Amino acid sequence: MDSQKEALQRIITTLANKNEELHNFIETLSHSLAGLQVNTTQVVSDLEEEFDTMFSILDEMKESMTNTIKQEQARKSHELQNQLTQSTNALESAEELLEFANNALDIRDEEEFAKAARQIKDRVTMAPAFRLTMKPKATDNMTHLMVDFSQERQILQNLKFLPVPRAPEIDVQDCLVVDNTVTVSWKMPVEDSKIDHYILEFRKSNHEGLPRVKDEHSWEVVDSIKTTEYSLTGLNFDSKFMNFRVRACNKAAAGEYSDPVTLETRAFNFSFDSTSSHLNLKVDDRSVEWDPQGGKGLESKIKGKENKGSGTPSPKRVSATRSPAVRGGRDRFTGESYTVLGDTSIDYGQHYWEVKALKDGKSYSIGVAFKNLGKFDQLGKTNTSWCIHINNWLQNSFAAKHNNKAKTLEVIVPDRIGIYCDMDGGQLSFYNAENKQLLHTFKTKFSQPVVPAFMVWCGGLTLSTGLQVPSAVKSLQKTENGVGGSNSSINSMPQ
User: Fold this and answer.
1) Which of 302, 407, 488, 495 could form a disulfide with 306 if both were Cys (CB 3.0 to 4.6 A apart)?
2) What's the predicted TM-score (pTM) here?
3) How far apart are CA 411 and CA 147, in angstroms?
4) CB–CB of 421/413 below 8 Å?
5) Are the C-beta atoms of residues 391 and 379 closer than 8 Å to each other?
């Protein structure tokens, strides 16, 4: 019976997964149909706009060339009309002179004849007809303004749709996710020398498998990529996966998208749990600051026994109240335990996060603790918490603490500290986040889940999560796991 139920449960799971896959595929098809209508309308509109632009250019050219022809006609007409007028006037003068000369032939008086002859000779010398050029200054030929549209006509007749690049293919085997950097690699199915650049699109997702049409994240774009590989650096992995797709572009058009791929980008994400924090701490998701005014004016104050729970003197007594029972009934830290926990427990695996202290902070601790850490307990002073402690008040100190034992760390306190927790391997290490210098390592067997833990007095911390375990830390861990040393001097016994 049990085996049949297990088999049926596997069938139900398979059917549910297939139904979800089909539902996503149907959404994809519907989205594609709607997009097809929109894109077709857009393409037709673009085509009409291109033709309208071409018609407009042709009309402008026609008008300009027609004006040129008319101007040439006017110029030639003016030249020919002037010549015609001058020639007509010259002809009239010549005809008059010819008539005068013919009449002179009939003069009988020699003296009168001689006088007339001299006049005719002088007039002939000055006659316009003998000074005119008998060659037209312009011709009636206009063939120099004719246009040969044969090449342009051939171009228009050969007009085709743009050559669109084929869709690239993303090679998942060559893609790399490391140190919060994703390197995506792709290739063209056939060589295309006309490709000018690529466009890479990506988005975060919490769904494994093919990207969904409707997702809580929108696509982001990286344009003008000149190679077939691109690295996205400095990412915050606050989602389990990332989707990627790429398209090729030539000088004219962008091609189809590649088949999308999904890459895993899991990392440890958590925030400060404000419900656990001491009332003298002002807590946001990614920051915590000392607030000396916190909790003042509240009616409920810690009295009697509660004030006996502290182990070290406090520079200032404050009041606190018990928060409502949330996250498993966890009480707020109180008394001298100026502590706040992370809101996500670590049950297994390797995880990494970073913390940066605000300037001029007097005292703070960074580490992990069991979730049942007492509300009066201070980090490092119980066998359920491990931390490094930085003190800049009265005298400077930098130490690793656990079970009320401390080991001085002979290194400079870095601006940013990286915390590496290996639940499976029973190891908690602290690093200089900038150069990955190892500061200290606790080796223990965690008997129950732990949560990130922080103590702040007169200062503040900012938190960076969504980080992969850096490759440099992984390498150091391999080396450290093979070498013993002083780092283990205050490590705890199995809990």
Assistant:
1) 302
2) 0.65
3) 86
4) no
5) no
Give the mean model confidence (pLDDT) for residues 445-454.
Answer: 94
In total, the chain counts a number of residues equal to: 495
Q: What is the pLDDT of residues 364-382, one digit of tens each?
A: 999 999 999 999 999 999 9
pLDDT tens profile 109-160: 888 888 888 888 888 878 887 778 888 888 989 888 888 888 888 888 888 8
pLDDT digits (tens, 9 = 90+) for 25-60: 888 788 889 888 998 999 899 889 999 999 999 999
Using the structure block, give the residue that is written with the tokens 């893609």. 175
Is pLDDT above 60 for 301? no
Residue 342 tokens, joined: 């992370």
Tokens standing for residue 215 = 């997702």
Residue found by looking up tokens 């520079």 in the block = 315
Beta-carbon contacts of residue 304 (< 8 Å; ≥ 6 apart): none
What amino acid occupies position 241?
A: F
